[in-house]
Design goal:
The chain is an alpha/beta fold. It contains ten helices and twelve strands. The structure holds iron/sulfur cluster (SF4). Iron/sulfur cluster binds near residues 247, 248, 303 and 316.
Length: about 325
């Protein structure tokens, strides 16, 4: 069952220039994304930096207001909710940020940071609040005596544990993890990923796991969506993406990732150039200037996400019912 559904979600940031601040264009950060997140699953979202992943993650919680489109959470359209109703909804929808230090108020003690949401929503106060925060500290592998310390007294991994405890405090069901382990050392990354997986089992959590690192996404995700210039270009189970990806962009990302098995020979597809500007994306398939398989039609017509079973691919050449052959 879908916990969250996104329908044709768009987020454009207007660009203003000149003395009168006249609008001269838009940064098309998210450009018509439709997908659903099943209850209890981890949906990984991958793509190079600047492809719109984080904007999409923030739009899901309406930390950034979408320009258009619909977000439905537990069968309620949250894109229509007023401020108070949305604040209530955010108890169930939380986010863990990439930089745990920047996201924690340096002047607040850890106990206050974790308990803040419980207080704001009038869920607990006094001794009960303290007991609940203590329980959360131990749930994320921190010690009770760390309750009164400040964020700067913790390591990066510990700070991310504080971020996880804060997300859990209000009994969240859905958590956006936005590059949640990217800033950490590899050994600490593994600890936080294991913690997130244990908590998912214990509290029946659903994750929207954003990362530029395919290795991490493969490790944690049930399904993977690949994003390029504001659009989903491929989506499938994690196994399918890693064993049988079809979209040339996904294959290029995979070929650039390290292969842990020395007996497995990786196909090498080199990505040409940089990600084009989202202000003026290329015509047709926005990947065509970098794609070694591009045909004439690729610059003329935008390929739509088409499905073969649960495997969605947006490509004229490798998508289901492709209209052009690779050679
Ligand atoms: Fe490459 Fe064309 Fe497919 Fe786009 S539609 S990924 S340019 S082959």
């Amino acid at each position: 069952m879908a916990l969250l559904e996104i329908k044709n979600l768009v987020k454009y940031f207007p660009i203003a220039a000149g003395f009168f601040g006249r609008k001269t264009g838009d940064v098309k950060a998210v450009d018509g994304v439709s997908l659903s997140v099943e209850d209890g699953e981890t949906l990984g979202l991958v793509g190079e930096s600047g492809c719109g992943k984080s904007t999409l993650g923030r739009c899901l919680l309406r930390l950034i207001e979408p320009t258009s489109g619909e977000i439905v959470f537990e069968n309620e359209k949250i894109t229509d909710m007023d401020f108070d109703r949305m604040r209530e909804m955010r108890r169930k929808m939380q986010i863990i940020f990439q930089d745990p230090y920047a996201s924690l108020n340096p002047r607040m003690r850890v106990g206050e940071i974790i308990g803040e949401g419980l207080q704001i929503h009038g869920i607990a106060s006094g001794d009960e609040l303290k007991d609940r925060v203590m329980a959360l500290l131990s749930k994320v592998g921190l010690r009770e005596e760390q309750y009164g310390r400040y964020p700067h007294e913790f390591s990066g991994g510990q700070r991310q544990r504080i971020g996880v405890a804060r997300a859990l405090a209000l009994n969240a069901k859905f958590i956006v993890a936005d590059e949640a382990v990217s800033a950490l050392d590899v050994s600490i990354q593994a600890q936080i990923l294991n913690l997130l997986q244990d908590l998912q089992e214990e509290f029946d959590l659903t994750y929207f796991f954003i990362s530029h690192d395919l290795r991490i996404v493969e490790h944690v995700s049930d399904r993977v969506a690949v994003m390029y210039l504001g659009k989903i270009v491929e989506i499938a189970s994690a196994d399918q993406i890693y064993a049988d990806s079809q979209h040339p962009y996904t294959r290029a990302l995979l070929s650039a990732a390290p292969v842990p098995d020395p007996t497995r020979k990786a196909e090498r597809i080199v990505l040409q150039g940089d990600v084009p500007s989202p202000i003026n994306p290329p015509s047709g398939c926005s990947f065509h200037p970098r794609c070694q398989f591009a045909k004439k039609i690729c610059a003329e017509e935008e390929p739509q996400l088409a499905y073969d079973g649960d495997h969605g691919i947006a490509c004229h050449v490798f998508g289901p019912g492709a209209i052009v052959k690779p050679n």
